[in-house]
Amino acid sequence: MSITIKYFASLREAVGQAEQQCQISAVGCNAAELWAQINGSIALPDNSLVAINKNYASLDARVNDGDEVAFFPPVTGG
Amino acid sequence: MSITIKYFASLREAVGQAEQQCQISAVGCNAAELWAQINGSIALPDNSLVAINKNYASLDARVNDGDEVAFFPPVTGG
Amino acid sequence: MPVILQDFEFSPYQRLQEYEEQCCKPGESGATVNFIGSLRDMHEGSPVEAMTIECYPDMALQEIEQVCEESAKQWQIHHFLVMHRYGRVEPGDALVLVAIWSTHRQQAFDACRYIIHHLKHKAPFWKQEHHGDNNRWLESNTNDEGVGQC
Amino acid sequence: MPVILQDFEFSPYQRLQEYEEQCCKPGESGATVNFIGSLRDMHEGSPVEAMTIECYPDMALQEIEQVCEESAKQWQIHHFLVMHRYGRVEPGDALVLVAIWSTHRQQAFDACRYIIHHLKHKAPFWKQEHHGDNNRWLESNTNDEGVGQC
For chain C, which residues make up each domain, given as ranges? Predict the structure, then answer.
C-alpha cells in the first residue's frame, strides 16, 4: 500500500526530510511499525506524536492505503 | 462648619441640584444626619452610597469642616 | 499606568496601537489581554437608542487607579491602559477599555478580569438609558455578570 | 469564524479594527476580549534574537477550528478571529491573536482563555529559538503557564 509520511521540527531534522512517499506490503501495519520499517535505525522519541490524515492518533493506530501519516514532537505553538 | 455636598444620578435628580455649599452648626454630625438636615423632606434610599473627600464612607461616618460629601445610588459603570 | 476618562468617542484599537508604539518596549511583554465593553443596542429585551454616563471624575480616577495598583501587587504587569467614556454614548460606542501587558498570559487574563470587575463595582459612574421619551437609570450592575467571579 | 495562519507580520490592532468594521454589527456585542501573544526578547533568562515557527498548516487550521467550535458550544459567541504566525519571527512580533465578541464579558473571557489554552496544547506548531549560531527547539509549552488552568 501507498503511504505519505510527514515529519516536523526535530523529527524532520532527525530523519533528514520533511515528507516521503512509501510503498509498504504489511497488512494491518500500525504507526509505530511504519516508523520502524522506514526509519529502523532512528529511535522514535517517547514523547512523539502521530497524526493520521491530520487527526491525532495513537502509535498503535492502524495505517491504511492512501493515508497521510505525520510524526512530530510535542507542539509548542501559541 | 462649611461642607460641600455633591449629588449624582437619580439622587441629583431627586434633590434638584448637583452641588451645594452649606454651613451647618452641628458638632459631630455624620453623613446621614447631614442629609436629614439639608434634605429633610426627601428620604435617602436604602441602597445609597456616600463618599467623603472622594473615598467611600459609611452613613455614620463623621463629617468635618471643609469636607466634600457625595451622595449617590449604586454605581453602574464599566 | 494611564487611566483616561473622556467624554468623546475613542477607537480602542487605535489607542492600543498608539500606546504600544509610544510606551511599550518591543519584546518586553509576551502577553497582552484587552477587554472592550461597548454599548449594545438591546438591554434586557428592550431597544436602546442612546445612553448618558454620568461620573464623579476625580473619585472615578482615584478608584480606578487604586484597583490597578491592587492588581499590580498580585500580578506582574508591565503596562496598563484603562479608558472610560462618560457623557452621551450611542450603540456600538466603546464605553470602557482595560488593557494589560504582562510576561505571561495567566497574569494578563487575571489582572484584566480583576480590574474590569472591580471597576464596575467601585468606580462612580451611572448609566441612564434613553429610548424615545423614556429615560431610565440602570439600578445596579451587580447581578449582571455574577458577583464574585472576576 | 475566521482562522488565519500567515508567514508574514501582522498588526493585531489593525486587523481587529478591520475585522470589526467589516464583520461585526455595531451594538451587537457588549464585550470583546483579545489575547495577543508576542515574541519576547528573553526566554528563561537567555536572550532571543529570533525564532522560526514551523507548522503543519492543514492540521493546524483544522485543530484551531475545532477548538473554536467547542468553545461556541459552551459560550455565546458572536464572532471569533484567530490568527497565528509561522516562519521567521523577531522579538516584539505578534505570534498569535485570539479575539472574541460576545454579549457578556464572562463569556468572552472564558472563551478567549479556553481557545488560547487548547490552541497551545493541540495545534501543530513548533518553535525554534535562534541565538547566534545556536538553534534550539522548544521542547514543550505545557509547563509554561500551568496546565489545566485555561
Answer: 3-132
Distance (Å) from the alpha carbon of C22 to chain B's nearest alpha carbon:
26
| Residue of D54, D83, D89, D150 best to disrupt the A interface, most CBs of A under 10 A | D54
Output the nine-digit C-alpha cell for D134: 545556536
pLDDT score for D147? 34
Cα(B62)–Cα(B60) distance, integer angstroms: 6
ipTM of this predicted structure: 0.94
Q: How far apart are CA C93 and CA C34, in angstroms?
A: 16
- Is D21 in contact with D43 (CB distance < 8 Å)? no
Task: List pLDDT tens digits, range C89-148.
Answer: 999 999 999 999 999 999 999 999 999 999 999 999 999 999 989 999 999 875 544 433
Task: Report the distance separating Cα A39 and Cα A22, nearest Å.
Answer: 12
DSSP string, D14-64: HHHHHHHHHHPPTTS-SEEEEEEEE--SEETTEE--EEEEEE-HHHHHHHH
DSSP C37-59: EE--SEETTEE--EEEEEE-HHH
pLDDT tens, D25-46?
999 999 999 999 999 999 888 8
| D149 vs C148: CA distance, rounded Å | 18
Residue ranges and CATH numbers for the domains of chain B are 2-72 (3.10.20.30)
Burial of D38 from C-beta contacts in 10 A (0-12 / 13-18 / 19+):
buried
CB contact under 8 A, C59 and B51: yes
What sign does the CA torsion over C142, C143, C149, D2 have?
negative
**E strand or H helix at C141:** none
Residue in D62, D123, D128 closest to A77 by CB: D123
Q: How many CB atoms lie within 10 A of CB B1?
A: 14
Q: Among residues A66, A54, A41, which one has the least CA distance to residue A8?
A: A54
More reliable by pLDDT, A47 or B27: A47
Q: CB distance C127–B70 less than 8 Å? A: no
- Does domain D3-132 correspond to CATH entry 1.10.10.10? no
